[in-house]
């Protein structure tokens, strides 16, 4: 009995010490939990610094950050791990990619309406106007959702976001110009080649090795370009719209690689505002300057207002602003740095699938054997180009680019 009492006393002492230890740990972690609950996209630099001082490897920090916050906040650990994991980032990137696919038939609606209303400046000015309107309406909407982004980004993040946004603006300008001369399904398949260009851009910019399968994938993808782009009615040449969209895919690959690189030094989500502003507002500036110096451009302001007075067009612009422009771009800047470039490129492969399906459903494209064959070749080429990266991830687990949320 005495021995049992001693054991009970010792157990009580151990439990008491453990309880005190938990309380002390909760008091230490409370500020971090508060920051996490108020700003879930703010990086947990405190845990990184603390783990670095202890000499823990990065992979250990990834495993311990989320349970620590969950314990301090009183939230279920499993639920928090799922909501803040790489899987959640990938899921939201997929949803954002669906919205990008939706943008192709919506942009085509605008360009077709511009031709019917004899818009000044043709497809170029019509495309620049649409790009500018998306940012003009999108920036206030983003600030309404995330008002602290206006002052949260530091100088480096503003510079990175503006640089990426300007590159994206040039790519979107070429994309809209080309879309006026081709169909949404062809445009989205050509644009998707940006995923295949990523390894080559990374090699040129950062001397990262290019696997032979990547070159094979590019060759297969270009075969798909030939199937979709070459028209027998134009001396078997690729049309101007297809060439412009092919150039767009290269620029988008540059944006993907730089987003991956520059995103490592920026807090997640803090590139969104400068990126969105620089991606479209220069379009309105160009149109304004053009309308002031060109005789044809004098009607541009009234034409733009008349376009927005059409309920169907206004609906399309609203959809383009809310989903592909604000949500997709914000999720891209917030979540792409948390996954590897290879995984992001894999997700972006879904864009032509979504875009082509929606374009066929909208009536912009007929479902033909040529569309299916060319699209399958481009998707297969993209998959082959990304296969070496996916195999490395499966063998080595998460890559160094995969980050905790």
Key traits:
79% helix; 405 residues; 18 helices; mainly alpha; disordered N terminus; two-stranded antiparallel sheet
What secondary-structure arrangement, pairings included, does this model have?
Elements: H1 2-38, H2 45-54, H3 58-73, H4 77-83, H5 86-116, H6 122-145, H7 149-152, H8 155-179, H9 184-191, H10 194-206, H11 212-229, E1 230-231, E2 237-238, H12 240-262, H13 272-293, H14 300-308, H15 311-335, H16 341-348, H17 350-362, H18 369-396
Antiparallel strand pairs: 1-2
Helix pairs in contact: 1-3, 2-3, 3-4, 5-6, 5-9, 5-15, 5-16, 5-17, 6-8, 6-13, 6-15, 8-12, 8-13, 9-12, 9-17, 9-18, 10-11, 10-12, 10-16, 10-18, 11-18, 13-15, 16-18
- The coarse silhouette is globular
| Count of DSSP H/I helices | 18
Give me the Rg, rounded: 25 Å
Sheet with the most strands, sense and barrel status: 2 strands, antiparallel
Given helix and strand content, the structural type is mainly alpha
Task: Describe the overall structure.
This protein has 405 residues and is an all-alpha fold. It contains 18 helices and 2 strands. It has helices spanning 2-38, 45-54, 58-73, 77-83, 86-116, 122-145, 149-152, 155-179, 184-191, 194-206, 212-229, 240-262, 272-293, 300-308, 311-335, 341-348, 350-362, 369-396, and strands at 230-231, 237-238. The protein has a two-stranded antiparallel ribbon with strand order 1-2. The radius of gyration is 25 Å and the shape is globular. Residues 1-12, 27-83 and 398-405 have low confidence and may be disordered.
